[in-house]
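Ticket #4471: structure export looks truncated?
Reporter: QA, pipeline team
Priority: medium

Steps to reproduce: submit the single chain below to the structure queue and open the exported record.
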Amino acid sequence: MFFILSKTLNFLTMPLAIITVCFVLAGVLRSPIWKKRLFWSALSMLLFFSNDFIANELMLAWEIPATPFADVKKKYEWGIVLTGVTSGWRTPHDRVYFQRGADRVTHTVQLYKEGFIRKILVSGGSGRIVKVDEPEADELKKALLLMGVKEEDIYLENESRNTYESAVAIKKMYGATIKPEDCLLITSSFHMRRSLACFRKAGMEMDTFTTDFYSHPRHFGLDSLLIPTIDAMIIWSKLIKEWVGFIAYSLAGYI
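Actual output as written to the record:
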């Protein structure tokens, strides 16, 4: 129930969904006062949420900065990489279709090949309400093998549907053999705060390595300050999803 509720809540809190509802209501309501209020509210929200400078500043504050490879603290036994970067519904099913967060995988492979991690644990089944044919962890294993990772160095947890379930499942499956201090948690920068909180709650405090950055260097040009962009809307969608998830996880006792 919590899984379905969280997915529904994420959709209902997306800026574009709220703006669309306001525009539709402004068009169908008979009250002139409410029509005007809803129209200007929708237009104001559209301009605000599409502003690149505002969205980027918030994402810069939220994301965990990248760690240079030269600053990685030590050699780790395990690199734990979270899924959520493929399109499992695409066909034909004879290849892996990556989305925006592919560097969760490519940076993990770089850590592996440069000797910072010895083994890779991929965690994640399907985060979709409608079940896909193959768990995402299995898909990422195929990609890791193609990238030259030895099969004996790849471990899977492919049943979890969200970050909390990943942390609990890893603790249950590998808790007796994995020491948190020997692990490096790898996921998208915007997702790291919630991920680390979930693993900490499960009793697995570990170092982190962030990937997949949505922010960019601060820019004060007119294009950033005044011109609406779809990228700003995407950033807001990621931020609000994480904020809602953080609050929901807190209320549910997951973090």
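Status: closed, not a bug. The export was complete when the record was re-opened. Leaving a note from the reviewer for reference: The mean pLDDT is 91.
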